[in-house]
Amino acid sequence: MSTVIQNEQVQAIIISQLKETDINKPVQFLYQNYYEGVLAMIRSKGGNEEDAADIFQETVLTLVDKVKNNQFRGESSVKTFMVSVARNLWLHELRTRGRRNKREVAYFAGADVDEAADERQFNKPATDTMKTIFEAVGDVCTQILTGYYYEDLSMRQLLERFDFENEQVLRNRKSKCMKKLKEILSTNIQLLDQFKTLCLYGTK
Amino acid sequence: MEQNDKAMKIDQLLDGLIRGQLDEKQGKEALAELEVKDAESEIALHLSAAAAVQRYEILRQVQAVGAVWREKHAGQQPVEELQRTPARLVRMKPLKMLLRVAAAVIFIVGGLLFYQISTTNSQDLYSELYVPYNVVVERGSEGGVNTLVGHYQAKEYAAAIKEYEQLTASGSREDFFAGMAYSETGNYDKAAIAFEKIIKANQTSGARLYNDDAQYYLSLSLIKLKRYDEAYKLLNIIKNEPAHTYHEEVGRWLLLRLKYM
N or C: which end of chain A has fewer CB within 10 A? Predict the structure, then answer.
């Protein structure tokens, strides 16, 4: 009984920490506690360590996204969520890759694949594209935009962090950074369509 | 410059919408005032860009943690393999290996010990323990003690023995050099008697004249006579007495071999 309470408390802490801007600690916890299980599951279904690393990262990102959007209601434990999302993502990945050998076909026959996996915003191609986009936006711009849209900082708070003459100059720079990002995004219709469906985290 | 100001105003307006400072209607009206043609698309694009920033940041943080974690755990045995092997055996594996190494070491050490003990003889032990006795006595011209010591010093062992056997009475000094002369000539029985006489005399008188020397050279004689138990006891006394003159000469390894002879 005490273990159950303890697990619930740990889960509540993890969820609460994932809502913060710095998510390093809870993500470390997720890797520490659930990576091996996901790795074992993926290896048992024909994947390798690299596959597991990608799927696990995608699973963590999915959880973080859901928590930050208040879509994770805690009806299932974090562990159950992680394992089931990872399993669905991996099966989806296998299907995408077209690796339908006999064993997989047999598995699919009895498997309940979540079709939501079709909208994978954090799979490897998507994250690689995201990385390319923000590399093009530049480091300083990314940091300014992150401070404003992710950390929800005011211009005054941002000014303390960056070496700009005054708030107006920073505001101007931020506007240019956003313009640049929007221009790049506009050239990637597929990604843009995907982002259009997303909600913003905790903005006022 | 004007274009730049307009872009900044639009950006602020859109941020106002995001942060709930304006509702959608107010936002669209304000955008219309700034001659934004497709306000809806502009809002959608702005929201998408902001959402992209948020997702990119969580991706960056998760990737960083994942990279550190994988680097830390690289080369470790995969969980799947751990799960395939019964847990008890997994835990036993290092212990089993350790026990095997320990058994091999014990076997090798035991074998070496057995070999050393089985091949050690009295001559080996005697040679290891033998220390020449240095006389710090001047050679005298007169008979008696000084003559006996002088003969020993000159390695005239037979003459020293003859001198000793002619004495009507002897003290520890004569007994000791006689014992040494007997030892040098291979008369270990007589040497042992001479040394034992010194030890007994000292026990009676409470003196320690030539006592340490007598104990040590007696043990050597006893080894030669294959009276190993007696030799072991005597050498053990010497080893356990740090102040003994010959304490440093007696090693544990020698005692161990002597014990099992």
Answer: N
By the 8 A CB rule, do A204 and A154 touch? no
Q: Cβ separation of A31 and B48 shorter than 8 Å?
A: no
pLDDT score, position A115: 46
- Is residue B184 within 8 Å of residue B157, measured between CB atoms? yes
Confidence of residue B136 (pLDDT cuts 50, 70, 90): low
Q: Any idea of the CA torsion for B105, B107, B113, B118, to the nearest 10 degrees?
A: -160
How many Å apart are CA B218 and CA B235, to the nearest integer? Answer: 10
Interface test with B, best of A66, A175, A185, A191 (most B CBs within 10 A): A175
Helix (H, G, I), strand (E, B) or coil at A202: coil
Q: Write out A138-155 in H/E/C secondary structure.
A: CHHHHHHHHHHHHCCCCH
Task: Name which of B250, B246, B167 is nearest B210 in CA terms.
Answer: B246
Residue A93 sits at the vertex; the CA angle it makes with A88 and A98, to the nearest 5 degrees, is: 130
Read off the tokens for A172: 């101007």
CB-CB neighbors (< 8 A) of B50 in chain A: 149, 200, 203
Q: How far apart are CA B222 and CA B125, in angstroms?
A: 11
Q: Complex ipTM above 0.95?
A: no
What is the gyration radius of the CA atoms in chain B, in angstroms?
48
Tens-level pLDDT at each residue, chain A (204 residues): 456 666 778 888 999 999 999 999 999 999 999 999 999 999 998 999 999 999 999 999 999 999 999 988 777 788 888 988 999 999 888 888 875 455 555 555 555 555 445 568 888 888 999 999 999 999 999 999 999 999 999 999 999 998 888 999 999 999 999 999 999 999 888 778 878 777 888 753
Q: Is the separation of the CB atoms in A40 and B83 below 8 Å?
A: yes
Token pair of A53, please?
């690393």
Chain A window 89-118: which residues touch B at a Cβ cutoff of 8 Å?
A: none
Which tens digit of pLDDT belongs to each residue from A171-199?
999 999 999 999 999 988 877 887 877 78
pTM (2 d.p.): 0.57
Q: Please tell me chain B's helix, strand, coil percentages from 3-state DSSP, rounded to the nearest 5.
A: 75, 0, 25
